[in-house]
Amino acid sequence: MKGVLNKEYAIARQRKRSHIYRLKRRTFEVLKSIQTFSLKRPEAVLDIGAADGLMLNRMKEIFPDTTCVGIEYASDLISCNDSENVHLIRGDALVLPFKDNVFDVVTATAIIEHVSDPIQLVHETFRILRKNGIIVITTPHPFWERIATHIGHLNEEEHNELITLRKLISLFKKAGFEIVNAEQFMISPIGMPFELPVEKMLKLCRLDFLLLNQIIVGRK
């Protein structure tokens, strides 16, 4: 898997404005998706590519009775989480170490672009989800990600494949998911005043191609 991160990434997520904002915004979108599209309060949630577990910690605050589990490839990042309320384990996103039909929600933010076999990841999430469970995936928009790479904001080798929303929809359908939401979000990589109303207006004006990230939600 490309783009495996280390403790420097965990430090940046608590100190660097762009990293703090991206974590906050992705967490907001994931929680909104769970609250909107999950048919019941989740009993068990899995976060794939959980990194230092900060997003999972926030989920546990919102859903205190939910079992929150994260899987992360980098052991350095796992060691950065000292919360006793979430469970982080080391593992491979393409071979999830769980039985079938055990989770109500699976999330994977900014991870599918790093794996060598995206359809395998989607199939694995389908396998471990219970009936009517949902998967929430976010990934950068390929065009804007290439721009960020070109200007030196990102290293090209960090990503295995940049994936469009159209391709994500296709992957989800092939795996057996019903698509319940697919859209773009995030107008600024560091945040801005009134960003949510501005993004809503852009979508109404069919200018959502200007938004930097993509989110897709599927139901089993």
TrEMBL record:
Database matches in InterPro entries: SAM-dependent_MTases_sf (IPR029063)
SUPFAM superfamilies from the UniProt entry: S-adenosyl-L-methionine-dependent methyltransferases
Top-level taxon: Bacteria
Pfam families per record: Methyltransf_23
CDD domains (alphabetical): AdoMet_MTases (cd02440)
Gene3D superfamilies: Vaccinia Virus protein VP39 (3.40.50.150)
Protein name in the entry: Methyltransferase type 11 domain-containing protein
Species the sequence originates in: Candidatus Brocadia sinica JPN1
